[in-house]
Design brief:
17 helices; alpha/beta
Amino acid sequence: MRCLFVSDISHRAGGVYGLRAISFARAMADRGHEVLLLAPTLSAAEPGASATAIRERLATHDWTAPLHVEVAPRNRALIQLHRSPLLPQPIRRLATAWLIAAEGGTQGDWVAGANQAQAAILDGFSPDIVWANFGNLSNLVVGQQLARDAGVPWTIDFKDNFANYVPGGLHGVLQRRFADAAAFTSNAELHAGIAARWFAQPHEVIYSSIAPAMVATPDSGPRSDKFLVTLIGSTYADQFLERFMSGFAAWVKAGGAERRDATLFHYAGAAENNVRAAIGRAGLDCVATVERNVPHDRLAKLCHDAAVNCYIWATFGFHHKALELMACRRPLITFPGEHPETFVLAERVKGDLRTCTDAAQLTATLDAVWDAWKANAIPATDPDLSSVTWDAGAGQLEQVFAKAIG
């Protein structure tokens, strides 16, 4: 098959954001398919691939690997205004509705950039299928337009909660707009079930796998000199973060000078300002480091060094990070809950997932991990990731695409 994948973000962004599209593109290429992955440039300041460059690359590409084409979004005045933090909320809501209705969504500059490159792409690459991920609505517009112009079926990949990222009054409008999609995939049962409220197409749940660096070796162990506790990823609800940080700070304090001096706290994620503020309000006594998202190689080193990794639960979505962190062979705390699907996945891969719903449970779990760490006996789980590899998912994609093509 000749597959055209459309991603809403460059895989060069690192982390989990662009991992799904590029990893499945590589896995499909390994299975003998020709895959072109289209994405916006990492930065709006980058020029992106010109039409001439796209044609030249298509003419010479070795299809044993996917061809990754990045094009620059084209500036739109209303979109820039919409992104201004100074725009009053009532005007922002009106602008959002207009952009979705008339400009290809709030990322309409990406739609315009992709439109400019479309002729060069389709002149040199005749896809059999288009697969566009729902990171934003604009990306679905790009995929739909490419498929229509190529005269081929297209499919949607819901890697986020459709209901959460689309204004409620527009669900029906967008259902009708994208009714021509032949099928959809999703990275979780939770997201698939939500999308199915509006999209009646055949669908398949295909879990993302993980970056190879995240898999700890069987003989790896946490740092022995410091009790490292990580908090990974976005923090979503401030009240959950506040409760976690308050409970963690109280646990550190209860252990006296020994625990204070031995414990390190390290946050890596997009909510660094929120976490710094929560640390201050909680009065955390131990050494704490806060930084933004880091590349997978650095994230892996951090989480492998940890005695325990943690994340804050978002009630509205599925956490792929749970699988990544279970691959680190360390206890994993989710606070203050999780969806049943994640527990099923943890059992499937034999991961060490521990849910703490309140400060008392957090204290008890940290006590148990602390005691194990002091005894040099942190549980070294042996996760079984064989059912959630990128190749296994590519096999599912093949079946979805084959049925859509007919």
